[in-house]
């Protein structure tokens, strides 16, 4: 029984090879087919480019928003863990509270808001990229934000996060309540304005 199946398989293989040689199938494609494919691909990419551009701007906004949100979560958790007041403030040089939020910000443990003496620097965040802007509008101060040892915040307010491109401007918010928790808000973003 095995010998018959082996012979029949070899016969089929010979028949396929013979048929392939006799019909002389073409392998590959012509220059006209290649040009046609390139033209169709370029038309589709031209139509899809604005959508990709919008997605890239939205991705940059998402990344910056997550960067702010993770900073707020980190500061709150450090205030609870260390049982001290933790401050986030804008910082141009990464050592003192100065400059604008676009220049970067620092997270530090201090006993007083205005004095950085005996403050422990926890993290330094670098300046924003070109086309990005960040503003903090708080109840007591636009220069800093604090968390108490119980995890609550000394003020409520919101970060306004803007991404500018040549064709569009997108704005999201990170709102902070006095409980110390932040939440991302994408609603009513067209009604706000960026300074840059």
UniProtKB/TrEMBL annotation:
Record keywords: Cell inner membrane, Cell membrane, Membrane, Methylation, Transmembrane, Transmembrane helix
GO cellular component terms, semicolon-separated: plasma membrane; type II protein secretion system complex
InterPro entries with a match to the protein in the record: N_methyl_site, Pilin-like, T2SS_GspH
UniProt cross-references to Gene3D superfamilies, sorted A to Z: minor pseudopilin epsh domain
Pfam families: GspH, N_methyl
Membrane topology reported for the UniProt record: Single-pass membrane protein
Residues in coiled coil: none
Localization: Cell inner membrane
Domain General secretion pathway GspH: residue ranges: 65-180
Spans traversing the lipid bilayer: 27-52
One Gene Ontology biological process: protein secretion by the type II secretion system
Signal sequence coordinates: none
Family the UniProt entry places it in: Belongs to the GSP H family.
Protein name as it appears in the record: Type II secretion system protein H
């Amino acid at each position: 029984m095995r010998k018959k199946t082996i012979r029949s398989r070899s016969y089929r293989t010979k028949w396929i090879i013979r048929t392939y040689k006799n019909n002389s199938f073409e392998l590959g494609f012509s220059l006209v087919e290649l040009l046609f494919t390139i033209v169709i691909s370029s038309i589709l990419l031209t139509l899809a480019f604005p959508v990709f551009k919008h997605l890239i701007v939205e991705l940059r906004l998402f990344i910056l928003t997550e960067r702010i949100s993770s900073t707020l979560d980190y500061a709150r958790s450090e205030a609870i863990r260390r049982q001290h007041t933790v401050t986030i403030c804008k910082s141009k040089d990464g050592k003192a509270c100065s400059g604008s939020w676009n220049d970067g910000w620092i997270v530090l443990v201090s006993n007083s808001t205005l004095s950085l003496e005996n403050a422990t620097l926890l993290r330094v965040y670098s300046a924003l990229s070109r086309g990005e802007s960040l503003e903090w509008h708080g109840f007591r101060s636009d220069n800093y934000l604090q968390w108490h040892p119980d995890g609550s915040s000394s003020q409520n307010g919101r970060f306004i996060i803007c991404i500018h491109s040549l064709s569009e401007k997108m704005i999201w918010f990170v709102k902070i309540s006095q409980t110390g928790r932040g939440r991302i808000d994408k609603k009513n973003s067209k009604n706000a304005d960026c300074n840059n």
